[in-house]
Amino acid sequence: MNDTVVRLDGLIKKYDNRAVVDGLSLEIREGEIFGLLGPNGAGKSTTMNMICSLLKPTAGQIELFGYNTKTDNKKIKPLIGYIPQELAIYGNLKAWENVELFTSLYGIKGQALKDAIDESLEFVKLSDKRNAFAKTFSGGMKRRLNIACALGHKPKLLIFDEPTVGIDPQSRNFILESIKAANKKGATVIYTSHYMEEVEAICTRIAIMDNGKIIAIGTKNELKDMVRKNRDEDISLEEVFLTLTGKKLRDYTEG
Amino acid sequence: MSRIFILTKNYLKLIFRAKSVLIITVIGALVVMAALTNVFHTLLDQAETGEEFTIGYEMDDDSRYSAVEEFLKEGFEEEGMTVIEYSDADPDALIKEEKIDVFIDFEGDSYSIKGRSNDEIDARIVQYVLYNVDHMMNGDMGKVEIASDKIEAREQADADTYYTIVQTVYFSSLCSIFLCLVYIAERKQNIGIRFRSSTAGGAHIYLSKLLACTLTAWLTMALVTGGLALFLFDIKLGCPLTSIGILLLTILAFVSFGMLFLIIFDNPAAAIGFLFMVLWFSGYAGGTFETYMLSSMSQSVKELSPLYYVNRTLVELSVNGQSDYLGRCLMVLTVMSAVSIVLGMFITSKKKGV
Ligand SMILES: Nc1ncnc2c1ncn2[C@@H]1O[C@H](COP(=O)(O)OP(=O)(O)OP(=O)(O)O)[C@@H](O)[C@H]1O
Ligand SMILES: [Mg+2]
Q1: From B10, B189, B193, residue closest to A97, measured CB to CB
Q2: What is the per-residue pLDDT across B317-347, written as a single tens digit (0 to 9) for each?
Q3: Position B149 in a domain
Q4: According to the model, what pLDDT value does residue A18 have?
Q5: What is the CATH number of domain A4-88+149-245?
Q6: Which of A150, B36, B221, B248 could form a disulfide with A81 if both were Cys (CB 3.0 to 4.6 A apart)?
Q7: Contacts of B17 in chain A (CB under 8 A)
Q8: What is the pLDDT of residues B259-305, one digit of tens each?
């Protein structure tokens, strides 16, 4: 029981009476790479923002590491590393300065801070670019720096919100590998995406989300079992999504 | 503490990496101040060196000034004025016929001055001389109370000194513009997300911005005033330590005040536009463009402007070496800083910076 890292219970977020996240309940256990799969506008980022206390839920409960976000925010925040969907780095600061600044926000200083900078940059393979300005980076490098900035305080739960949007396949593979590596080192990971293959490749459990609701949840094989007639049938998550929602995921995402 | 230190350090890097902005600010400030000072100089000179100036006066026997009549006459003549004594004259008629410019009636313990309404400057020069005499007599006899409206006439800073001081003060009040460099970068680059998901508090975020901007402004204004003093004018700051202290405090007060606008408005351009309007009014009322001695604005309007207290104190310190406004000036600046900082920190805690 106490290995539950995230517990959402009847989570609702409404904008102008429209429920963008609509009664979400789920549990994520320690050591998982949990995938949240859904088309644009499904409510993935909104859910992540509520988990990180960036947004107040309209209703429902969020428990992280056994703490309630409403009452124990201070204890929760150092445990989370949030990699936002939109880049959040200073173009006019060097790579190491970005990591320094954002790591120091957690009260880390001195030698521990220096080590954290080195490790974070090494983790995303930007050590050789530590003295370059972030504004001179390619899209992929910026994404990697964006990740490094959330690692310095050694969080136990990493939340990646579409970290591979708009970058080349090499950088994408690199990022996916890093996520697996971080997970091996002990971090629990939440990974949101609208790319099936990515989710299929790295996630241990997947929730399919549409219109603010979770339609199905399970390992990729469990999800496929919901749809296929016999075990040997080879179908993709794409087809699972199509069958469960009656919509094509790609229709949303590529336009 | 370490958070504020590291944040401040990085904000300073952000500000100083916008080199062009800094250079333009310093050079721009120098050029504008030199130009303005020159223009005002010419204006003030024209106003001062008018045509012949004639004073008529009537001295009652019981006037306490009768003892110093000769001394007074000398004083006026030293200022280049012609002095004529009258008895039972009709001052209004004399002034109307342009026989005299100003009439002084010495009666008992006091005197009254009449002048052509458009000759306020001349009337003030007269007051100035009288004030000096008062002052001297006061020193000798120790019993004459000087009404505060007469004190006003005593500063006769020359144009260079006056305008260099008030322009320095005015530019100091505009220094929160440096904060734009930080706020624009943060808004454009979604940095607020990181602040809000971290354990840093509003105080960390607020104070480091305030510190970075205040330090930058101190340095910039030191360069600007240094430049003015070295190359352009011979500025006499009265009581240098006090004056410099006031300037530093002025910058802190106005940076924290300007920062409020940047915190409240989500759009930095709107914030700066609105702020500069307020500061322009403050300068207008406080003697930045028109000397506060000659300004026709009512005293209560002037006193709405924090710049009035600063200008007046610095000018009086420069001319007289002391100022009755010093206490009020320090108080206005301290209250302004304290209120702005408390409010700014509070709002930043609510919105966490960006
Ligand atoms: N501040 C807001 N006000 C009103 N509606 C909002 C607001 N923020 C998000 N929404 C709406 O909520 C819905 C879900 O948005 P969200 O960003 O969570 O989707 P997402 O699943 O992350 O999509 P994407 O794949 O495009 O990132 C969208 O329809 C969006 O328009
Ligand atoms: Mg999103």
Answers
A1: B10
A2: 888 788 888 999 999 999 999 999 999 999 9
A3: no
A4: 92
A5: 3.40.50.300
A6: A150
A7: 92
A8: 999 999 888 889 989 999 999 999 888 888 777 766 667 788 888 89
Domain boundaries of chain A, sorted by first residue: 4-88+149-245
Domain-embedded: residue B218: yes
Q: How distant is the Cα of A192 from the closest Cα of chain B, in angstroms?
A: 17
pTM metric for this prediction: 0.78
Each residue's pLDDT tens digit, B59-92? 888 887 787 788 778 777 776 678 888 888 888 8
Number of compact structural domains in chain B: 2
Ranges assigned E (strand) in chain A = 4-15, 18-29, 33-37, 59-64, 67-68, 80-83, 157-161, 188-193, 205-210, 213-218
Domain-located, residue B129: yes
More confident of the two residues A198 and A231? A198
Yes or no, beta carbons of A87 and B189 under 8 Å apart: yes
| A101–B7 C-beta distance less than 8 A | yes
Last residue of a domain, one of B143, B176, B205: B143
- Looking at residue B60, which CATH number applies to its domain? 3.40.190
A172 min Cα distance to partner chain B (Å): 22
Residue A25 pLDDT level (bands cut at 50, 70, 90): very high
Taking CA atoms only, the protein residue closest to ligand 1 atom 25 is A40
B14/A53 CB distance under 8 A: no
Residue nearest to atom 29 of ligand 1 (CA): A41
Ligand 1 centroid–CA A20 distance in Å is 7
Which residues in chain B are contacts of A84 at CB distance < 8 A? 190, 193-194
Measured between CA atoms, the residue of chain A closest to residue B196 is: A54
- Please identify, by atom number, the ligand 1 atom nearest to the C-alpha of residue A253: 25
Answer yes or no: is B151 within a domain: no
B174 and B258 share one domain? yes
| Residues B189 and B130 occupy one common structural domain | no
Of B143, B170, B205, the residue at which a domain comes to its end is: B143
- Is the domain of B319 the same as that of B207? yes
Same structural domain for residues B138 and B180?
no
Tens of pLDDT, residue by residue over A178-204, are: 999 999 999 999 999 888 888 888 999
* B301 and B224 within one domain: yes
Q: A212: CA distance to ligand 1 center in Å?
A: 10
State how far the Cα of A138 lies from the Cα of B320, in Å rounded to an integer. Answer: 62
Range of the domain at B113: 51-143
Pair (B17, B56) in one structural domain: no
Residues B262 and B211 in one domain: yes
Q: CA of B2 to nearest chain A CA: how many angstroms apart?
A: 6
- Are B302 and B168 found together in one domain? yes
pLDDT value of residue A205: 94
Ligand 1: which residue has its CA nearest to atom 17? A45
